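User: I'm curious whether this sequence folds into something compact or stays loose and floppy. Could you predict its structure so I can see for myself?
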Amino acid sequence: MKNQWRIVLTILLVIVVAVFAILNVESVPVSFGFTTVHWPLILVLLVSILIGAVLMILFSSINAFQHNRAYKDLEKTSDDRIAALNADNERLTKRLQNSKSKQVAGQQEKQIQDLKAQITDLQEKLATK
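Assistant: Here's the prediction. I'll summarize afterward.
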């Protein structure tokens, strides 16, 4: 349905331009500074519109290239930042694991000492009986 409206609108626009061209076939002088030529008015209008469209496309493409470059720079910066944060995360994770392993080793050492103390207590109790 949307495309049908576009087709209808395009046909209407072509008809308006054709009628406009038929109504403006008079020859007008166009001065380029160094020479003057006589062209039909519709040709002058169409060339002017074409030049305007080309300039608009040129400026919009320059703007698009600038936005793309800024986006790529921002993407690179964010990727670098993400990589740095991931490296920090890995470093802190290893540090935490080392800390946990030291804590576990300390707890195991304490348990060993407690068990040795219990063994000596039991041996003393056995020795006294």
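Summary: The radius of gyration is 43 Å. The first helix runs from residue 2 to 23.
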